[in-house]
Amino acid sequence: MLDVLRVSSKSTPNAVAGAIAGVIREQGKVEVQAVGAAASNQAIKAVAIARGYLAPAGLDLVCVPAFVNIQIEEEVRTAIRLIVEPR
Amino acid sequence: MLDVLRVSSKSTPNAVAGAIAGVIREQGKVEVQAVGAAASNQAIKAVAIARGYLAPAGLDLVCVPAFVNIQIEEEVRTAIRLIVEPR
Question: Does the distance separating the beta carbons of A41 and B41 come in below 8 Å?
Answer without folding.
Answer: yes
